[in-house]
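Title: Comparing notes on inverse folding

I've been comparing how different people in this forum approach sequence design from structure. To keep things fair, I'm posting one structure and asking everyone to reply with a full sequence. Here's the target:
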């Protein structure tokens, strides 16, 4: 089966986007793994099927991780989705809504020569209750700025849901000094998180308005950036008094702006760009 796709990236997170308005394609499991393979496939952090939306949103975003598992939401993937819709002529106005499994997200896009180059996503409110993350323990208890052991070192950590689970580790040293590829997988599957978790290794710079982060994404591995992760880090830092309500999160893939609004909602802003178009035969990838 041949599939026409577009590849977009946002702060180094790259996605394979496919228009599937009738919601006919099943790319979970082996097809997504084959497409995202960076050696014999297209290569990407995930596959996004753009479908018709619901609840008043004209379009929907259905994301499958690089390991073939479903994901509820991606802030960087959302910016790529709106840029993809604009490139297809399906979105022409700067304001639009997109359905996701974690709710409808509002997006404000900036156009240059007809293409979306920047976008701000209304990510919704963070959830701190263990039941909402989900995290084992008393259902309505939170886990904020608590001691947490990583490889024999005790750090302060917070658990937050931004539509998907995050464990934010606050470090005293540059995240580059940590072996994320070794520690990340163990923490992703930590017994406290029954559905697994994303893991952020974060250092708040002096003054609190800038945060350096590396991320291990659930179902993907270490990536150059993570939109929901940036929001989780910013919220956890603000909640613990480390940072103001507006910060810049610095990833290896670039910078993301995060703002925690007075109503409790979180805004995520950053760049997005088109990489290339293509057609792929899944049978040739062994999927």
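Reply #1:
Here's my take.
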């Amino acid at each position: 089966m041949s599939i026409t796709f577009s590849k977009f990236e946002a702060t180094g997170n790259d996605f394979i986007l496919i228009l599937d308005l009738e919601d006919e394609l099943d790319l979970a499991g082996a097809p997504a793994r084959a497409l995202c393979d960076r050696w014999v496939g297209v290569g990407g952090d995930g596959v996004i099927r753009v479908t018709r939306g619901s609840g008043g949103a004209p379009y929907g975003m259905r994301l499958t991780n690089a390991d073939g598992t479903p994901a509820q939401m991606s802030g960087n993937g959302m910016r790529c989705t709106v840029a993809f819709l604009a490139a297809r002529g399906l979105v022409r106005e700067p304001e639009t809504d997109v359905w996701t499994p974690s709710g409808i997200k509002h997006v404000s896009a900036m156009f240059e020569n007809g293409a979306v180059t920047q976008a701000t996503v209304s990510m919704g409110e963070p959830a701190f209750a263990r039941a909402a993350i989900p995290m084992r323990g008393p259902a309505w208890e939170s886990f904020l700025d608590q001691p947490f052991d990583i490889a024999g070192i005790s750090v302060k950590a917070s658990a937050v849901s931004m539509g998907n689970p995050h464990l934010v580790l606050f470090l005293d040293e540059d995240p580059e000094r940590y072996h994320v590829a070794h520690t990340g997988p163990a923490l992703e599957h930590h017994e406290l998180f029954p559905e697994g978790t994303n893991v952020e290794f974060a250092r708040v710079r002096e003054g609190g308005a800038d945060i350096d982060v590396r991320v291990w994404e659930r179902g993907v591995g270490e990536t150059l950036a993570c939109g929901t992760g940036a929001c989780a880090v910013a919220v956890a830092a603000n909640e613990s008094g480390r940072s103001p309500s507006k910060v810049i999160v610095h990833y290896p893939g670039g910078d993301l702006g995060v703002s925690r609004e007075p109503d409790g909602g979180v805004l995520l802003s950053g760049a997005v760009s088109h990489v290339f178009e293509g057609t792929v035969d899944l049978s040739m990838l062994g999927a």
